[in-house]
Amino acid sequence: MHKKIAVVGDRESILGFRAVGFHTFESVSPAEDRALIGRLARDEFGVIFITEQALEPIQDVLETYKDEKIPAIIPIPSKEGTLGLGMKNVKSSVERAVGADILFKD
User: Fold this and answer.
1) Domain segments of the chain: what residues?
2) Which stretch of DSSP H or E encloses residue 4?
3) 4-98 to CATH, choices 3.40.50.10580, 3.40.50.1000, 3.40.190.10, 3.40.630.30
4) How many CA atoms lie within 13 A of 23 on its CB side?
5) 44-73 pLDDT, tens per residue?
6) Structure confidence at residue 106 as a pLDDT band (50, 70, 90)
7) Taking all residues of the chain, what is their mean pLDDT, rounded to a whole number?
8) What are the residues whose beta carbons fall under 8 Å from the beta carbon of 101, sequence distance 6 or more?
9) DSSP state, 8?
10) Distance of CA 72 to CAs 7, 15, 29, 64, 102, Å?
11) How far apart are CA 100 and CA 44, in angstroms?
């Protein structure tokens, strides 16, 4: 069973997640973050939260796991704010499921 939850990002953004018991991993570089996501997926982490700033240079990782049930990779804002990647991901998922943009109608 995949009960572990990971949070990846800069130290200031992930510190609070450690306080509530999540496994936290400081973002080092895009290459290392990409490898880390792969290790977390193999290590049975069911949910991986990643700050949008850490995810931006490795967005292809979302494509790798988008059709997989596990892990769910969820972009979250960092202490610097949002880049809109989370909403973009939601919009894309809804369009793929429904066949049309029913949320934003852009």
Assistant:
1) 4-98
2) strand 4-9
3) 3.40.50.10580
4) 13
5) 899 999 999 999 999 899 888 877 888 988
6) low
7) 82
8) 91, 94, 95
9) E
10) 12, 21, 21, 11, 23
11) 33
Side chain identity at residue 29, one-letter code: S
User: What CA–CA distance (Å, rounded) separates 95 from 57?
Assistant: 23
pTM: 0.76
- What's the token pair of residue 10? 């800069």
Round to whole Å and give the CA distance between 77 and 62. 16
Q: Which two tokens stand for residue 35?
A: 């490898």
pLDDT at res. 77: 86
Band the pLDDT of 23: cuts 50, 70, 90.
Answer: very high
Write the DSSP string, 25-79.
EE---HHHHHHHHHHHHHTTEEEEEEEHHHHGGGTHHHHHHTT-SSSEEEEE-BT
